[in-house]
Amino acid sequence: MDSDWRMWSRRDLLAEGMGRRGIQHAVEDGWLVRARRDRYLASTAPAELIRAVRVGGRLTCLALLRLLDVFVLTGGGLHVHMPPNASRMRSPSDRATPLAGRGSREVVLHWVPLLRSLGADDPRVHLVDALAHAVCCQPARHAVATLDNALHRGLVGEPEIAEVFAALPSKYRIVRALLDRRAESGTESLMRLMVRAAGATYDLQVVIDGVGRVDLLVDGWLVIECDSEEFHSSWHQQLKDRRRDLALAQRGYVTWRVTAAQIMYQPEEVAAGLRGLLAARRGGR
After folding, report:
1. Which of 36, 57, 225, 239 qualifies as a cystine partner to 80, CB 3.0-4.6 A?
2. Matching InterPro entries, A to Z (predicted)?
3. What pLDDT shows up at residue 240?
């Protein structure tokens, strides 16, 4: 494990030959951070890891998934898994300050038993546990997008997904039924769910002769492209997109480009636009 993602006890550091004075100097010089009593991390460790250890547990759920670049849309906050015997919980910003209550919107505590155990030197939970926690902490459609993304990137497979849902209450089974690893981004997953809710048929990552792959093909005629600023903001890319749109029009397809930001933050407006297009087609307009 990379030292940036490792946690040491004082005993661990002594066993590695640092010495008591060496530990003190490492903290004073900023090489090590004493997150809480007998828990040290490298100063280069992600801040969220240090904050979770300072509270008294391990990083999990949405906070860990964001750190791993797994798609997460819902809110912020620090999510910490707590051992059943946890005590002396501290503020994530100050190890001398007790944690107010048993969590808040800023600090979400998870007390459920872990599915998989990691070594004592790991300040995070296993990805399988983080995904299980994330299903419970998000609206269903956001959870679908998160799990789709983890599947598409190969971070988990069907056995891990089965393990996640075996540990969850039966009410979450609908989420599993909606998963599709073909979605190349979280916004594609969200868009797909809007299409499904509108009662239309669809397919993902369809290859059209002379054009290439498109994100979604709806009812056999509407091509929906989910554009992110990262890949579609340059003028060169916009010209390329327009050439694709023209080629699609020549083949009888209608192209609708929706930005990732619109899908994530204006879902009602996007869903209304989709219904308008489908209604126009069905009405012969």
Report:
1. 57
2. Restrct_endonuc-II-like (IPR011335)
3. 85
Residue owning tokens 């669809």: 202
pLDDT beyond 80 at 246: yes
DSSP, residue by residue, 150-175: HHHTTSS-HHHHHHHHHTS-GGGHHH
Token output for 221: 């005629």
Domain ranges in the chain?
1-45, 46-177, 186-282
Please enumerate in sequence order all residues whose Cβ is within 8 A of that of 264, keeping only pairs 6 or more positions apart, or say none: 73, 187, 190
pLDDT greater than 90 at residue 43: yes
Distances (CA, A) of 168 to 110, 161, 185, 209: 14, 11, 25, 43
Confidence of residue 228 (pLDDT cuts 50, 70, 90): confident
The CA-atom distances, in angstroms, between 224 and each of 2, 187, 278 are 41, 12, 12
Evaluate the CA torsion angle 161, 196, 263, 231 in order and state its sign. Answer: positive
The H or E element that residue 25 is part of is: helix 20-28
For 244-282, b/e burial (b = at least 16 CB within 10 A) is bbebbeeeebebbbbbbebbbeebeebbeebeebbeeee
pTM of the entire predicted model = 0.91
- Mean pLDDT, the chain, integer: 92
Give the span between the Cα atoms of 273 and 280, in whole angstroms: 11
- The superfamily (CATH) of domain 186-282 is VSR Endonuclease (3.40.960.10)
Per-residue b/e over 10-28, b at no fewer than 16 CB within 10 Å? eeebeeeebeeeebeebee
Q: What is the pLDDT of residues 111-131, one digit of tens each?
A: 999 999 888 899 999 999 999
d(CA 85, CA 56): 10
- Cα gap 175→193, rounded to integer Å: 11
- Residue 12 backbone phi and psi in degrees, to 5: -60, -45
In contact, 124 and 11? CB cutoff 8 Å? no
